[in-house]
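ok so I'm stuck.
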Amino acid sequence: MCGCDEGVQEYPVSEATKKQEIASAFVNSSQSARAPYVVLVSIDGFRHDYAQRYGASHLLSFDVRAEGLIPSFPSKTFPNHYSIVTGLYPGNHGLVSNTFYDRSLGRIYEIGNRKEVEDPIWYKGKPIWALARAHGMVTASMMWVGTETPINGHYPTYYYKYNAGISHEDRVNTVVNWLLLPEEKRPHFITLYFSDTDDVGHEFGPDSEEIEKAVLKMNDVIGDLRTKLQDTGLPVQLVLVSDHGMKSFDVDRLIRLSELLPELPQGTVMTKSIPAMIYSSQKDFLDSCFDILSNDDRLDVYRKGNCPDHFHYRDDSRIGDLVIVPKPGFQISEQRDWVSGNSTHGYDPSATPDMNGIFYADGSFFRANHEIEAFENIHIYPLMAHILGLKFDTIDGDPEVLQWILK
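replied:
not stuck anymore, here's the structure
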């Protein structure tokens, strides 16, 4: 039995987009074939207040709407996308920032370095597509952090490497076409990613006409996706999230660490994402840097192992010996002439409500017309696993937090 509307025809996509990666000829087990479907969508940098502020009608009509989605520290793209699909804090899943150093490997992870991004050595935990695979379930990904590498030995069954050039229409249509595949090949867990509001937010800021246009554009894209998912006739549960929000800063509030700190000793590494981190075996140098930075009221500095409890950012060897976090409204950069926008993210979410993202959920499993308080993004993983009937090992997320939004 197909389970989908026989009248629905495959949606058109460009010839280039048709060239997906297929990990194997893996098919659904008989039990997995009877499971419902979860489509997880991320709109990068979509701040918690954008939908209400700019009238994103499709988002505001979802069954479940949260006041916000609290990102894990640091409120950066790669750590939080991976937290959402592992149920682990960045301090536990390995991606401790967008850029960081691993002492044992002697290598730096940077999100723009394809070789490192596609190496499974960086990724801990069991992302939900790997969990599904272990249960005999087909999965698919139209881009998501971690899906381009064989974590736990496997990719999603169908996947795309990150490609900003794939149109919104092709992304949506590809997702829906996956759901029109024969039952044994049809993925039950699918990810879908858009970067629009992050790109525009960085360049023009969260109060700009440009971000309003980007929000309304994404509202139309999500409306199109919802309609096409409904037309399949399948029990699809749509979960819409973002990784973080966005906050403006003044360009005269740039912190140039090179002007504050002594020259780095040989063998010392400094990364300058948020948080900036210093890795060094030179105790005197670290003590000197700590003294200097702890007297700068534009930032907070912590020694490894002494970060605040709510960071969940203590023991991983990839965390620097010094962790440097700019206070809201400040930015760490060596630039002289700031050429990009004046908005960013990465700050402590507990001190910066503008870091909160979104959570919306729609489908037959969810209670209708429910507004809920903001919650941490690590709790989405057990919710999705429950819907799909997947049993998981110990994680940071709590299954009880979102259980009550289900019918």
